[in-house]
């Protein structure tokens, strides 16, 4: 009853409510450059242990794959090379001994891919562009040049580095396309300059228009969009054409064996575990397993506004990811060649590139943590994650392909070919 009587006597007047506050300045001995250390410190023991668990898990995967590669190279491959190179006796020549294994496809192993050779070159060029951009960006961030306190610095560095790496992309695509004896070099260069960047820009422009229609402060201003177009057409495209010009001026890639005019027929049926679908799905599991723990923290930084500061861990996990992609692709490529299947170009790219598929599936699982209740959130999240997965697909696929190219050139240069 007392509370009711007090409430009845309260008068509410309509007017301006004035709020005041006081500011008390105190001198601090902490330097300005070190004032973010409280947010970026490694005092969180749980987070520290999780990062170290990720590193140990990744190192164990690399150790397992390294042992497999060593067993193949030291035992099986060395035995094959010795058997292929040894001098046959008269009795063996009389018996006309038929050899089996990867030596039989020496005249076809470097035959250009039968399907979509231009697309393959463009994918490899884009992969090299993304790989160099990511590597330089991680190195600069680990060295402390890109502070997480300034959220825009990392995105700006990625954009600028991606644009500047247009020359290696054009050079790689042109070199491969010339090696494949392609004639439409202008078309190949245009695809390299506009395919992946075009998809990214159109998607970003669509999302930005949707943000602007909703009145969101996250919409990018028109001047910033014009700046992106200027970087793309004024810097990236000319660099791609410059790299393509240098690539077409050089000699094609040389191979240790001569390719025959008539393609050899692949024995059928092939073992089920060497089918394209199975090797593609299996090839991405171990690379994904080497980086999925660190991927959780990266996604939390991107979508939940958490600070990500352990770029040293990122650099180490990135190296482990690249090494794992190369090793698993070499192992599966060796098994494929032993089965006398010489169509390894696209398969090498897809085997390691399938890591991006598992990243995309993991992002679907992670989306449940966001508790989204707007359809637009679904569009933004999955749209950007698909773009990121496409870039990762090109990056890991290019690493696997170049590892297999080095591997095949090495083993076929070690045998005697009649």
What does this structure look like?
The structure is a single chain. The protein has 2 domains: 47-90 and 258-374 and 390-417, no CATH class; 115-254, no CATH class. By secondary structure, it is an all-alpha fold. It has 15 helices and no strands. The chain has helices at residues 2-8, 37-40, 45-85, 90-95, 117-142, 151-164, 166-179, 185-213, 222-249, 276-283, 285-303, 311-338, 345-353, 355-366, 375-412.
Topology, pairings included?
Elements: H1 2-8, H2 37-40, H3 45-85, H4 90-95, H5 117-142, H6 151-164, H7 166-179, H8 185-213, H9 222-249, H10 276-283, H11 285-303, H12 311-338, H13 345-353, H14 355-366, H15 375-412
Helix pairs in contact: 3-11, 3-12, 5-6, 5-7, 5-8, 5-12, 5-15, 6-9, 7-8, 7-9, 8-9, 8-15, 10-13, 11-12, 11-14, 12-13, 12-15, 13-15, 14-15
Count of helix runs: 15
Computed structural class: mainly alpha
Which radius of gyration do the C-alpha atoms yield? 28 Å
Q: Provide the residue-averaged pLDDT.
A: 82
Shape: elongated
What does the largest sheet look like? none
Q: Could you spell the SSE succession in H and E letters?
A: HHHHHHHHHHHHHHH
Low-pLDDT segments: 88-98
Number of domains: 2
Assign a percent range to the helix content.
55-70%
Strand content: under 5%
Membrane topology: Multi-pass membrane protein
Keywords: Membrane, Signal, Transmembrane, Transmembrane helix
Main location: membrane
InterPro entries: EMP70
